[in-house]
Amino acid sequence: MTLALLWFILIAILWIGFFVLEGFDFGVGMLVGILGKKDKDRRVMINTIGPLWDGNEVWLITAGGAMFAAFPEWYATLFSGLYLPLFLILIALIFRGVAFEYRHKRESAAWQRGWDRCIIFGSFVPALVFGIGFANFVRGLPIVHDVAGRRWVMEGTVGNFFGLFMPYALLGGVLFVTLFLFHGAIFISLKTKGEIRFAARKFADRIGLVAIALLAIFSVWTAAAYGNGVVSWIAAVVAILAATAGYLLIKRGREGWAFTGTVLAIISMMVLIFSCMFPNVVPALDPVNDMSIQDAASTGYTLRIMTIASAVFLPIVLGYQAWTFWVFRKRISTQNLPVVESAEQQPTG
Hints:
The protein is mainly alpha-helical. The protein has 13 helices and 4 strands. Mean pLDDT is 88; it is low at 342-349. The chain has a two-stranded antiparallel ribbon.
């Protein structure tokens, strides 16, 4: 195995970790507007991810940094050609992060509702855009290989931009949103007590069937049209079975095992996506212009330095995050909230 291939696998693992962990974060954030009928319920939901969300986003930063260092052509082509979608994700994540920090600064219903909308927006938009984006990474992007300049460029015509929103890509976006809602609802039921727990379980029961159906359509379509042999089909089948198992388990009240099912479903879905991209980092609409792993890779010296640094620091990061999850493993409810005057009872005149 070459170092370039090793880093392609490691970057895939980083993206998988991000979607598994930030997936339930996005789901909880979107569910604030669905299950959060009362202010106390919304506070409980936000508190389930309060100690975790910023650590989960480190996986995104690390994945982007690894792409920049290990595959600079990959990074440069995507970030220049897809500047507007990535900028939209950045803005959404900024609003979301600020909302988590500022929501509790004032006991005003209008103030808190405004920040709640930012949390919903900042959770929905990245899920949708990432889904559309990764579906396009499988389908292929309108990149052209400039042989003279030894680089790849993305053609910036209007037709190519709207070509990113083909039915397959839109299916990917809707799937990510729906699957993360399912994942987040199970997480809420796993981390809470009382009414909000059963409301989340009931919602997971409804959204689960939709998520399974969309995942089945996307997985079969992906493996059939863009698959890379038996690995893609295995990943597709495992994703569907894992999501189905999660659905059946949450109906029986087995929240922990149900959460394991959605985790495995997301892992398998992302394995399917990256297996279809292989051996390229950016498949092109015209296969002649494909950007392969070897074409986009940094020098061997750079990859060796990165490998050594990762071997030293990665276990520390993983250990710290595992410790964080262990410390905040207990369920919470409205009874665990500080006793303050409800924002909904504040005078508005």
